[in-house]
């Protein structure tokens, strides 16, 4: 299968096939399973700009609906991270007279709360109503719209140019990234910066984190593809910084072209990526073969444990669990339930695989022999919280292991 690149219209060939998948964050109620939406999860790379992207285009209104269940403040590690981001932006970029910052997809306000508390002029652009209401309750100004070229020029007309535009775990979700970049160019002041952090292709490939591929992740960014995309839209990549969050992310800083000299990290990371062949189809094809091995190892282990009469539960129901369980064909016969602390996910099931999501209290009472850690990017926090767990953890990233 071949499509054309969403950024540069170059040819994109599918290199990874994770089968028929529902939406990662659908979490339907068990009584609503008759008409589940499935699409083919194919991922490819553009021949021209090396942007890794989903072949299918799922309408954003279907994904970021009013009951979108993800809560960015749910993890204390993440909350602390975003407080740090806010402080740093205030110290480095928001120092002039009456500075103005816009956040794209501010979710429940985990980052902007600190900015709002400091009285800095800000605007959170957030189309999902429930999370937007949470942000408003923290005193944050919200515009309930999708960010694109038109939204950007409306914001500029009303509030003036932005000194900083921020986005975390949202820019790679937006399939109309071309329109977002045009909007950034319009809204950003002459010396402003667009800072965004997203799961990093290098980390996804290195860890065989195939579960980070799902409908919301329209793209998996690399320094090379962002470098190319920025140029196409009159912007420039001026810094890039690896982050440990979400299993390995990268923070990119874009500026108007020529406005700031690029930091040495940009050239260094571009060279590293060339050496790692991150811009080659063959790298994605090898990744797909490693994902098959993880699938075979995980299902073999779970079948053996079931044959031995062991009780296995799941821990954490991130969107990633939808990809893994549907790709591996894991249902309630192998994992009868998964616990998750998000109330909006409880009393629902994982789409496609129909594993029920229950509160962590069930896990505490049930005392299973094994727990598959689906929220592996929160391993430290969860293992510390569950230090009383006497069973054993199963992880599958970067490979299947019992710990
Ligand atoms: P996360 O990996 O942050 O998001 P995504 O859906 O983008 O992959 O989701 C982590 C999930 O794990 C989230 O649903 C909350 C849950 N969780 C717990 O149940 N307990 C915890 O201690 C933590 C940190 C997370
Ligand atoms: Zn392209």
Describe this structure in words.
The chain has 403 residues and is of the alpha/beta class. It folds into three domains: 2-54, no CATH class; 72-282, Vaccinia Virus protein VP39 (Rossmann fold), CATH 3.40.50; 309-402, NAD(P)-binding Rossmann-like Domain (Rossmann fold, 3-Layer(aba) Sandwich), CATH 3.40.50.720. It is 34% helix and 23% strand. The strands form three sheets. A seven-stranded mixed sheet has the order 7-6-5-8-9-12-11. Strands 15-14-13-16-17-18 form a six-stranded mixed sheet. A five-stranded antiparallel sheet has the order 1-2-3-4-10. The longest helix is centred in the last third of the chain and has 27 residues, at 281-307. The protein binds thymidine-5'-diphosphate and zinc ion (ZN). The site of zinc ion (ZN) has 8 residues, from loops.
In short:
The chain has 403 residues and is an alpha/beta fold.
Main features:
403 residues; seven-stranded mixed beta sheet; six-stranded mixed beta sheet; 13 helices; Rossmann fold; binds thymidine-5'-diphosphate; alpha/beta; 3 domains; binds zinc ion; single chain
Ligand set:
thymidine-5'-diphosphate, zinc ion
Proportion of helical residues? 25-40%
Our estimate of the beta-strand percent is 15-25%
CATH H-level homologous superfamily name of the largest domain: Vaccinia Virus protein VP39
How many separate structural domains? 3
Number of helices: 13
Distance between the termini: 40 Å
Global outline: globular
CATH fold topology of the largest domain? Rossmann fold
Structural class: alpha/beta
CATH architecture of the largest domain: 3-Layer(aba) Sandwich
CATH domain class of the largest domain: Alpha Beta
* Overall strand count: 18
